[in-house]
Amino acid sequence: MSYFYGPVPSRRLGFSLGVDLIPKKTCTLDCLYCQLGCSEKKTMKRFFYVDMRKFTQELKEITKTNPKIDYITISGSGEPTLHKSLDKIIHAIKRIVKNKYPVCVITNSSLLYRKDVRNELKAADLIIPSLDAATSGTFRRINRPHKAVVFKKLVKGIISLRKEFKGKIWLEIMLLAGVNDTIAELEKFREIVENINPDKVQLNLPVRPCSFKLSGPSPKKLERIVEIINNNAEIVAGVSNLKNRAKVSKDLAREILTFLKRRPATLDDLVISLAARPRDISKELNFLLDKGVLRKQNNHFTIND
Ligand code: SF4
Questions:
Q1: Are residues 156 and 271 in the same domain?
Q2: What is the pTM (predicted TM-score) of this model?
């Protein structure tokens, strides 16, 4: 399988079948917290990357056993709106799965200033745009954008999306201690969030391994942040209470590697997603660590480059 991964347990979306449309780290930004590592190569050029025949075959194969899926989520290893004609992909997904599963798109918001991109996204059911800064300086510091990305246009793009899109919008804010959690920044966030008027505000924390030493605000500070930004904001917590519903794997090491190619994971993530016993997963992980195929950082396993 090359375009899909999972279903994986998602902190927000239950069991999510991930869709990865574009080559690794093809992105308009280079965020400090990116799990895919640093890259100076950023792009604003949109391409049609997917081989639709292969894409269709893979999705049919995955869904023929009726796996538990709460969302089909277009995100993956870069910025999905860099894929041209995203509406064609979303319509194809819905046709293949006969509208059985809702489609979510997770975007870094940088191309939402473009009317064509917003129009293509109308085919989705849920959009999760991110906004990690309330000022241009903080945006450049956290998201290290391509020179053509303009912060004010990005914010206007999210506001326009809100006006035009009929589905749900959950605005995601990654909080980095000492970077975007000053009172001045938070008050500007409140203003912007009010202007956007999303269905939900989700505050995320840098819990996955990345190239920099980052941390989220303390629990006490988080309470204050919720009060300032939006009283209904949710703090995205770890995966919990998900029943073990994914299909059983026969070749555990291969399944683990396929999963970790997409994103780092904890032992718990793997246990839930691969529906295997913790001791079996631990055994395979130790074997792969010993062989130098994997490394472990902050409780997350990731593939060695
Ligand atoms: S937008 Fe996503 S893929 Fe792009 S650099 Fe940021 S975290 Fe990485």
A1: no
A2: 0.84
